[in-house]
Amino acid sequence: MGLSKKTTPAGTRPNRNAPRAPRLAPGVAARLAATTALMAVLVDHRPLDSAVDATDGPFETLDPRERGLARAILGIALRRRGQIDDALGRFLDKALPRKSGPLPAILHVAAAQILFMDVPDHAAVSIAVETAEADRDARHFKGLVNAVLRRLTEQRDAILASQDEVRLNVPDWLYERWVKDYGAETTQAIAAAHLLEPSLDLSVKSDPEGWAEKLGGIVLPTGSVRLIAHGPIDALPGFAEGQWWVQDAAAALPAKLLGKVEGLDVADLCAAPGGKTAQLAAAGAKVMAVDINEGRLQRVRENLSRLKLQIGTIAADVETWQPNRLFDAILLDAPCSATGTIRRHPDVAVLKRPADIKALANLQASLLARATSMLVSGGTLVYCTCSLEKAEGEDQVALALASLPLVLEPIRPEEVGGVEAICRDGFLRTLPSDLPNAEPRLSGLDGFFAARFRRL
Fold first, then answer.
1. How many separate helices (H) and strands (E) can be counted in the chain?
2. Cα 158 to Cα 154, 155, 416, 454, distances in angstroms
3. How far is the CA of 123 from the CAs of 28, 160, 217, in angstroms?
4. Active-site positions?
């Protein structure tokens, strides 16, 4: 089984009497899938989730155990990409050949296991060589794969001891922006938080203490239930009954800032994936969920159906959508760089560039203006992004106040569980290093920004 696609010539059918391909040795399928997905991120610049969830992709045929292993490898390969680059570079005299197929991903997948996973060294090396052998472009370099990885195993401890893990794993441009905006000490804390595998956060319809006890988790000051989950999420108690939904604790805060919404007409703009939509519906609002992507909106409908919550939906571009009424309240979760979600989505650090932030900031300003035009006089607008960039947060607020009929309503700590650290200058500003816990896996938040306005 190679990493290069093989197609059947047009007009022919596969020979069903031909010998079947030999069954892959244990663990090889997971490494092949991880290698292919990593190539999709690094070379094709595709989000990791789209590469993993593709119905025609390599993950589709994996059993649950292999799928879990492949996801774990990918998480580490991306989360620790800077360290892996540094380690491999010590044994490569020059850049890898351009026509070497998935060779870079093969080395990264193996190095992630050798450096950071409890995998026997000989297995990681031999499977990497086998993976290279299976590809027509990479097979010419299987000797290089073997030599580099064996040297890596021999010098692993010395290499790890010499590395600055916090600094190496953040792209220079992001690190410099964060130092400018937050200072060196806070930037170090953010970068350190990104190296930890995040917990599973749930928003519950009711009784968070009871669900925390049932699921073996804790209740955060903000009201979310947090646990370290193992195994399929849909197998956890309460999922099938629609008692809770997965939502980072930081992402659960902006909807709360609209206050009491029972009976109000509320628009949830750019609604997918739908966690905030569920919060508003559960609080008794009459919700219209709007998203430009019909596929993502369909998943919102399916999730809300599981939760037994009623909403209205419309697939539309918020920049051009003309609603037939004004809304009492609006939640605008604007498209953004998502740099606040790197702890959950480490591919963001690979995929985003400074130019993306500038383009997204322009879009956010346009969406804020459109949202304001849909709001009744005296109505409440909450603007939020899952970004650490001030260009997508505080700077947008300054622009809106200067150009739109809005006034700022400061956010108070008591509205978000009394956590003063996440209320900064009247805004909600959560950082990955917030909510520390003695158990590191139970600490942290996604980086979110939110501001609340009242229309004049």
1. 16, 13
2. 9, 6, 45, 57
3. 10, 20, 35
4. 386
**Distances in whole angstroms, Cα of residue 265 to Cα of each of 131, 325, 374:** 56, 9, 11
What type of residue sits at position 425?
D
CA separation for the pair 101, 104 (Å, rounded): 8
Burial state string for 106-122 with b = 16 or more CB within 10 A and e = fewer than 16: bbbbbbbbbbbeebebe
Count of beta carbons in the 10 Å neighbourhood of residue 103: 25
Residue 450 bridge partners (DSSP): 384, 428
Render each residue's pLDDT in the chain as its tens digit; 456 residues: 333 333 333 333 333 333 333 345 557 889 999 999 999 999 899 999 998 988 888 888 898 889 999 999 999 999 999 999 999 999 998 888 888 999 999 999 999 999 999 989 999 999 999 999 988 999 999 999 999 999 999 999 999 999 999 999 999 999 999 999 999 999 999 999 999 999 999 999 999 999 999 999 999 999 999 999 777 899 999 999 999 999 999 999 999 999 999 999 999 999 999 999 999 999 999 999 999 999 999 999 999 999 999 999 999 999 999 999 999 999 999 999 999 999 999 999 999 999 999 999 999 999 999 999 999 999 999 999 999 999 999 999 999 999 999 999 999 999 999 999 899 899 999 999 999 999 999 999 999 999 999 999
Tokens encoding 227: 């646990």
pTM: 0.90
Instruction: Identify which of 325, 407, 395, 329 has the alpha carbon closest to the alpha carbon of residue 364.
Output: 395
